Amino acid sequence: MRQAVTTLTVPTRGAGLVEVTAQVRRWVAEQGMETGLLTVFCRHTSASLTIQENADPDVQADLLRFFRRLVAEDPSLYAHTTEGPDDMPAHIRSALTGVSLSIPVMAGEPALGTWQGVYLFEHRARPHRREIALHLIGE
Fold it and tell me: pTM of the prediction?
């Protein structure tokens, strides 16, 4: 059994989804493991990860609109407001979507479905540089 780790740095443009599937696939292929388990981990508390459809961009737009309605950016609702009106809602959105994914590796690549993509979900309004840790264990 072998292990490999790396960190991806992902620039964001503010709130929205950034697809990282190509970077993840490329790194997994470079490791030369045929089977295994890939952990994808977001090293932040106001951004998250999700696997979603990558064929129709309306899916990402709808998700962003839904989460804006679901978790209001209203400072009167929260005690934690020192980092701006979008910070506490970003933490809640991250808690709802999660910061870690487990993806099987089969035949040397992540076993994603035909229309599935791996996305960093930025929940803050301004651009950030986010880190995603990848850990692959396999053979």
Answer: 0.96
The encoded tokens of residue 7 equal 């960190």
pLDDT in tens, 61-83: 999 999 999 999 999 999 999 99
Name the residue among 12, 76, 20, 81 with its Cα closest to residue 47.
12
Say how far apart CA 130 and CA 122 lie, in whole Å.
Answer: 9
Distance (Å, whole) CA 3 – CA 28: 11
Beta strands in the chain, from DSSP E residues, in sequence order: 2-11, 16-19, 36-42, 47-53, 100-106, 109-110, 116-122, 129-138
Rounded to an integer, what distance in angstroms lies between the CA atom of residue 16 and that of residue 123?
7
With a CB cutoff of 8 Å and minimum separation 6, the contacts of 51 are 101, 103, 112, 116, 117, 118, 119
Q: How many residues does the chain have?
A: 139
Task: Name the region of 45 (left: φ>0; alpha: ψ -120 to 50; beta: rest).
Answer: alpha
